[in-house]
Amino acid sequence: MRGIFRFGSSKIFLYITAAIVVGLIASYAVISATDSPKFQSEEGILDITQVHVSQNPLKLRGEWAFYWKELLSPEDIQNRLVKDGPHDRWISIPGSWLGYRLDGRQLDGTGFATFRVVIQLSEQDRNERLALRLPTIFHAYKLWVNGELLAEVGVVGQDKNSMTPRLATKLVFFQPENDTVELVMQVSNFHHKRGGITKDIELGGSDVLTVRTHLKIADEMFITASLLVIGIYHLLLFVLRRKDRAPLYFGLFTLLFGIRSLLVGEHLLTQWWPAFPWEMQFKIEYLILCSGGYIIMMYANCIFPNYVSRWFRLGSQVVTGAFCLVVAVTPAIFYTKLLTVIGVIVVLHMVYLMVGLGQAAVRRMEGALFFLLVSVVALVTVINDFLYYNEWSPVGNTSPFGLLVFTIAQMFLLSSRFTRAATNEERIARELQEANNKLTEMNINLEQTVQERTYALSAAHDDLRTSYDRLLQSEQGRKKLLAYITHDLRLPLSSMLGYVEAVQDRVKPERNEQYLKYIRDNTIRINRMIDELSFLSHLETGQVSYRMEPVDVADFLRRFYEQYELVVRDAGLDFRLDMSDADVQGTKSPIVEMDMQRMEQALFNLVSNAMKFTSSGGVVSIGLAVDEVKDTRYAIISVQDSGTGIPPDQLEQIFDRNYRYDRPGMDHEVEGSGLGLAICREIVQAHGGMVRAESDGETGSIFYISIPSIRGEGR
Predict the structure, then answer these.
(1) What is the pLDDT of residue 173?
(2) pLDDT tens, position by position, 134-164
């Protein structure tokens, strides 16, 4: 884990991106998994005769009949339908009536209304025991199923004084009497900015929904209990050691949001304590939201001192105090309208936190990167909850889970700090004891100790320098290989993509076999090119080792000729060995230091190049000569072909990587990566020699390899 804490800045944004991508994939999976089949009611009728809801619960979405400013019982609605005919006002559920346009005006969040929907069941569900899973509905309601009153939360009224708000989730059971189910719900709200059925009501089998409800309650109880235990534990740590305030702010933050998790989701607090005041419940939740950003900012400032600017800390205190005061002294109908502003303030705190953490991670401060990553997870879940409570997100109450992940990570961070402090104390004590022993030894034999230390440091320095040079070479090779592959593979891959698309789009079906053959041949060529690019990058960065030994050049060329004679002749070319220009018959055959395997590879690259650019019936010859320059004797190996040659103005470029020249007049297609000559040059230069080419552009080409001889006479 310390490797994560101290990771380089070049990986920071990669980790952030990975965290966001994983979060998005998980969110998509959750949304996909929880979505019911796309059945929606139209004009108050939901036809689910094709769905077996007792096995596959369904969310009741779509148009419900809407009776504004009326509290009607099922009997009242039936009488009105008989008297006045079909109803003509509909509202989309789930959704608040806030903003609903009625008689040319938009409704505000307060008021009361009656909702009605008729559900047509399948034959399988008529004899099944069904259930309705009711979410929190703002803010009091009554529910009738087929004329029977099955649920009542709070007291429904026509004004603020006559109603009593309450939030609670419920699970009600009923047995359908026939193939239709009529749901009638009275809802009133005079205490919150939004009113109506704002969350999904689920219909399904009693057993399935019971299991789902119990699992959800167990999940929230686990998260809540974890947050509360972690918070209390860290507050006790602060009581025992008050010098460090990080456990105080962390424990306070975790404890408060553990309490908040009791007030949202399944509303565990109201299930255990039904008489708990509704106004107090909302004030506690909003006070925690308002203060959460400031508390976590102070905790981060304790972990990374001088991390938060003085002006931001002062501004946060003022804004947080002002919002907490507003929530404390005003009714819910007022401060619930500030939810978006509160969310923006909290998100700004977390964004400021993450920007600073990013800077700290760039400076490689221990724990900054880890803190940053878990903060991203918490921020995503908090933003989702604010969007959910404003009816902009389908996934709700994710912040407790995100905060649990955040708190567990921070608990690990704090624990590592305590562990590190204890370890440092033990290490310091051990080092002091060792230092005392060493001082005693140094008093006995100071000079010998100094010499030993100096030698050890020198050896360590040499080892570090060697390791650094190797790492530097490896990194340079990796960068060059990546650059080569990026540059050289783009064209063949684009060409292959074009042929693949041609096959897919059936542009010319009769040429599909030809396209596939081209794709196969090009794939083989790309594999070969990758091998050559890798080898060339190792050559250029000095990562290829050579096994040098004295070699008789004449014997080396004879063995090479015998090995590749059939290969050249099978290509329709005459292959010749000419050593008449060198006195190699006696004792004057040149001897050079070479790696025979590498030099054979370089020489074959020249011969292979000559074969590619020489027409059938032509001649490829290799020869040996001896030259002396400034008292240095050179063995000169030549490779000559009878092709059309290379223009003289291009002779300086042919050894560059990826240079290719298609000579005119060739009777076959020339294939190659353009890397052979570049590899040849690198190998020859590693032997202390040089390679060059001559051509008049008309009568073939001659390539010369010059290697210094180590002595003037052979065996």
Answers:
(1) 92
(2) 988 888 999 999 989 999 998 999 998 889 8
Nearest to 533 by CA among 348, 679, 347: 679
Rounded to an integer, what distance in angstroms lies between the CA atom of residue 137 and that of residue 152?
11
Q: What is the full DSSP assignment across 404-468?
A: HHHHHHHHHHHHHHHHHHHHHHHHHHHHHHHHHHHHHHHHHSHHHHHHHHHHHHHHHHHHHHHHH
| Residue 179: both structure tokens together | 């193939």
CA distance 41 to 200: 13
Asked whether the CA dihedral 445, 448, 451, 455 is positive or negative, the reply is negative
CA distance 599 to 596: 5
Q: Is the dihedral of CA 465, 469, 471, 472 positive or negative?
A: positive
Q: How far apart are CA 536 and CA 477, in angstroms?
A: 9
Q: Is 595 helix (H, G, I), strand (E, B) or coil?
A: coil
Q: How far apart are CA 386 and CA 67, in angstroms?
A: 30
β-pairing, 574-578 vs 619-629, is parallel
Answer with the residue of higher pLDDT: 398 or 222: 222
**Residues ≥6 apart with Cβ < 8 Å to 313:** 297, 298, 301
Cα 633 to Cα 626: distance, rounded to the nearest angstrom: 7
Query: In Å, what is the CA distance from 583 to each residue of 32, 185, 579, 713?
Result: 83, 112, 8, 10
Burial class (CB in 10 A: 0-12, 13-18, 19+), 91: buried
Compute the C-alpha angle 555/558/559, nearest 5°.
85
